[in-house]
Write a structure and sequence with these properties.
- This protein has seven helices and twelve strands.
- The protein is α/β, with parallel strands linked by helices and about 400 residues long.
- The protein starts with about 25 loop residues before the first strand and ends with a strand.
- Bound molecules: S-adenosylmethionine.
- S-adenosylmethionine binds next to helix 1, helix 2 and strand 6.
- This is Related to methyltransferase.
- InterPro entries: SAM-dependent_MTases_sf.
């Protein structure tokens, strides 16, 4: 499948306006510098117009905004009245060189002996803890989603790391997935030592020499031998029973002045106006939330990350919001590209998101799920400027340990 390029440097800068953002600083704390800069080791062996954007909270990739006062919908996304974009090829995976840490690898083959269910594979270490698969389909999706995040946020990180007092020496990426963020970050900061951890050993063997991966459960007590200058976690919304507990562990393992940064999509994904009401997509989102809840996980926590960070003790906490269209329906070149990638991402996630959650959480049969997903897929495929206007709310939240 061909996708449009998501590398910010390849996008037409004239067509992509600067983020029109209003960083939200937690009122109880001082304002931060919201500067906009732009080998697996096993620790544990084992022109329709949309409503007006909310001025303070919404940060959007807009070429222009129009308003429909009084509506409950407020996304900052404007339905495009023009033609859709053209897709182009993209593939930027980089893998080169063996990690200096590769000799420390002590992976037991049992953790590669993945659990198979309904044609997908899942992690073996702490089996059953995380509900999304770890197979090639999911790995491809995670890498696709990485590019989507890069385009949406404009950078691998938004915390003010440049000129960080004391320097950037030790970095941790929790729940690193395929490790693609950690690899690019390690390339960008060759003098920093980067560790990526995950329940699944799905990271590549060839990585920058300053990066290593570990199989680890971020919800276990942390036992690193040193503190970090920066801790990053992306797309953690589906992961933890207690996000607050994990953020508290991160607080304990940051050195004073160090930063935590969370980049996430907030469930449920929504419609930008009333056209999505009654759709299978809306029903599916509700079922996923219910299924996750039945399995002990709250997928609606991202809007609370800011409060969690404050509760954990962080200062200068900043929340920034981005809405990612699903389908190329929103006005603006950047939104059209984001929409194409948002659509590809969600289409590829349908089975992975649904199977474990809906069978185990709600007792649905695979056949029932497949029937539902036929309709959901149809909704996503018809999402366009003359049809339903779906989007994923996205957040970046960062804070500093005093
Ligand atoms: C949606 S993926 C995101 C991956 C990566 N952060 C990214 O943005 O590409 C979530 C990842 O979290 C991992 N995960 C889930 N629960 C975890 C836990 N308790 N500890 C460590 N990793 C976990 C999963 O195995 C999966 O790779």
């Amino acid at each position: 499948m061909a996708f449009p390029s998501l590398h910010p440097e390849e996008a037409d800068p004239a067509a992509v306006p600067a983020n029109q953002e209003v960083p939200e600083v937690h009122p109880a704390i001082s304002s931060s510098d919201a500067s906009d800069k732009e080998a697996t080791d096993v620790k544990h062996a084992t022109d329709t117009t949309l409503p007006e954007p909310q001025p303070v909270e919404d940060e959007q990739n807009t070429d222009g905004l129009a308003s429909a006062p009084g509506s409950i919908y407020s996304t900052g996304l404007v339905v495009d009245s023009g033609s859709d974009h053209t897709e182009t090829d993209n593939d930027n995976d980089s893998a080169y060189g063996t990690s200096v840490y590769s000799t420390t690898q002590s992976v037991r083959s049992s953790i590669y002996d993945y659990v198979e269910e309904n044609g997908r594979t899942y992690h073996r270490f702490k089996e059953g803890k995380y509900f999304l698969p770890n197979d090639e389909v999911e790995k491809d999706r995670l890498d696709l989603q990485h590019h989507l995040c890069n385009l949406s946020f404009g950078s691998l990180y938004l915390a003010p790391l440049d000129n960080l007092e004391g320097g950037l020496h030790n970095v941790l990426d929790i729940a690193t997935g395929t490790g693609i963020w950690a690899i690019e970050f390690a390339e960008q900061f060759p003098s920093a030592i980067v560790i990526g951890t995950d329940l699944s050993p799905i990271q590549p063997a060839y990585v920058p020499p300053n990066l290593r991966f570990e199989v680890d459960d971020a919800e276990d007590p942390w036992d690193y031998s040193h503190k970090f200058d920066y801790i990053h976690g992306r797309m953690l919304v589906t992961c933890f029973q207690s996000h607050l507990a994990v953020f508290k562990s991160a607080y304990d393992f940051l050195r004073p002045g160090g930063w935590i940064e969370l980049q996430d999509a907030s469930f449920p994904f929504l419609g930008a106006d009333e056209k999505w009401e009654g759709t299978a997509f809306q029903r599916w989102m509700g079922l996923l939330m219910d299924g996750a809840k039945a399995m002990g996980k709250d997928w609606n926590r991202v809007p609370r990350y800011k409060d969690y960070l404050v509760e954990a003790g962080f200062e200068d906490v900043v929340e920034r919001r981005f809405n990612c269209p699903i389908g190329s329906w929103a006005k603006g070149e950047k939104n059209r590209i984001l929409g194409a990638w948002g659509k590809a991402n969600i289409l590829q996630s349908l089975g992975g998101l649904s199977l474990a959650i809906l069978t185990k959480g709600l007792g649905m049969s695979v056949a029932e799920i497949e029937l539902l997903l036929v309709e959901v897929r149809d909704d996503i495929n018809r999402a366009g400027r003359d049809s339903i206007h779906l989007y994923a709310p996205m957040y970046v939240v960062y804070g500093r340990k005093p």
